[in-house]
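<given_protein>
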Amino acid sequence: MTRQTIAVWEKGERMPSIGQLAAIAQALGVPLEVFFEQNAEEPTLLFRADEAGVLTPALRALILKRALAYAEIEREIGEVAVSPPQMPVEAYEPHAVERYAGEVRDFLGVEHAPLGDVIARLEERGLKVLLTPLPAHVSGFSAYTESLGAVIIINENHPVERQFFTALHELAHLICHRQDFLHPEKAVAAGLREKLANHLAGAVLLPREVLERELHAFRNRWIPEAMLLDLKLRYSVSMRTVLIRAEQVGIISRKQCGQQIGVLNKRFGKDKEPLELRREFYNPDFKDDQSQVLPKSRLERLVFQALSLGVVSASRAAEVLGVPIEYIRKRAALWSSNGGSAL
């Protein structure tokens, strides 16, 4: 570390990274923790999950580590931690949820257009989205703190359409039920909260106006499977969600919704549908010959920006992304700000 770097720290113009603090601690012969012991504001993520038992100490520690690393990269390149707007809701009122969906779509920067890659759109708004392996019955969960912002965790093994729905389900909790993150043990009417989050997620994916425009010819009639599949591809949503939304806005009856879902279950199984979505479908650039160097997430983009600016090392970049250092080296040259190697 140079004298100039230390002077910048002393002036408060930049904070040392965790890697730099570790190097200082090693040089001084003290544990890294001494740099955090006096900080009363040390972030502690507040978790919320549909099944509290999923949040084991090991999983909490892993997500906290990844969130802190994400925040470190944001800080190094001048990004600000982001949380969605807060809109506390206590009661589940279906008509009100349809209205809330419009406000969420405004936050996401769309009106009635398809959302496309939901995860990418959330990341464009500055939210932290982490895909990680979880038990098959767990779709995801979320975490929050003022200093780190909102973190949405999604099961990376689930189909893409389910990942999109889960991301918006957790966004709904972050917007409507943020008080549950502060006092999860005091959360009441959990069933109604889940119902609201599911309804809001579906309404954001498929607004009432879209359904009435697309399905008006099928009011109180059987919706063809080809129509369900068409809406799935265009609106990044499962065929079952299309049916549930059609029932919620009064296009079909609850009985018909159940019957059509039953047909899908019998044909494909309860957890499968024809033509699983791929995120590449919504990102044409990924099909280009240069797709191997394109960032796969906001975090990856920020890491390579920080690497090109020289504020993180290649080894730290590999650690944050959880990839081999060869992965970093292969892509670093194209991110170099001077045309040479960023390593």
About this structure: The mean pLDDT is 84. Residues 207-274 form one domain. The first strand starts at residue 46 and ends at 48. The CA atoms of residues 6 and 16 lie 9 Å apart.
